[in-house]
Amino acid sequence: MTGLTFPFLTPLRDSDRNLACAAGCGGIFLLVAVVAFIGLTVAGLVLGVSPESLEAIQTLDSPVALLVVGGMLAGLGAVVLVSARLAFGRPFASFLWPQGFRGMHLLAGIAVAVPVVVAAVVVAALIALVTGQDTGFGADAGPIPLLQGDFAYLGAAVAGMALVALGEEAIFRGVLLQLLAAWFRRALPALVLAAILFSAVHGDPDPVAFAMRVIMGLTWGWATLRLGGIEFAAGLHFGNNLLLILMIPAGEALQTGRELPVSALAAQLASAAVAITAVELMARRQRRNAAG
């Protein structure tokens, strides 16, 4: 493949542009997704799941809801990986961490999430102070979940957000980013389109919120390309989501449909700047270690 100089894209082959393989990957995914949906629907009817229970899951109002949503997204990630494995005949690891799994990158991503979220909160607070606008970071969100002493919620938040991060990163920064790069033969358009699709599937009609998720997708995608695997992005994604729902109730932190001011983008850009700085420092250290 020409024009692909990022370590994450080294497994790509010309055969990855095979239309039949791409169609097969999509077909397998749709088949499994339909079967799973039917199975869940039947199970819900048999168990007598009420509309109120489904609404609680959608609004993330309980520990069970956090675990259910996390499990569903992790399951989708697993289905996408299996579909790609069967269609393209490549190992699972080639879609996730072609350089081999690096636990320190995962931990680094979690650690970097702290200054990333702090940067967003500080910028959002400054904007609110100057303009009086709510930038969506929970100034009026009510009690802080971390201080409520609900250990079931805290445990479910950790497990649920870990599953969410792994599932979404496997799909969007793993399989999708590689396959788009194979078709475009360039990393940049693949990075941009994967970020747009990542934002689109959240179904948020607010254009500012849509743009904020695109920035997240670009940041996490760049980390994956530069560092050669999804580990750092998964850790950062997990840490970002976890910290937000420990400061703000999950139903409000991850709510869609709010009308955010354009100034809210500044907070997201501040987060991205911190994250990309950390990625570049790690990438340079990686190169020095490889050269020495």
What does this structure look like?
- It contains eleven helices and no strands.
- With 292 residues, it is mostly helical.
- It has one domain (7-291).
- Helix 2 packs across helix 3.
- The model has no long low-confidence stretch (mean pLDDT 85).
Q: Which range best describes the helical content: under 10%, 10-25%, 25-40%, 40-55%, 55-70% or over 70%? A: over 70%
Which class do the helix and strand fractions yield? Answer: mainly alpha
Oligomer: single chain
Uncertain regions spanning at least 5 consecutive residues: none
Helix/strand order:
HHHHHHHHHHH
According to DSSP, the number of beta strands is 0
Straight-line distance between termini: 28 Å
Shape verdict: globular
**Rg calculated over all Cα atoms:** 19 Å
Topology, element by element:
Elements: H1 19-47, H2 51-59, H3 63-88, H4 92-96, H5 103-131, H6 151-184, H7 187-200, H8 207-227, H9 231-247, H10 250-253, H11 264-291
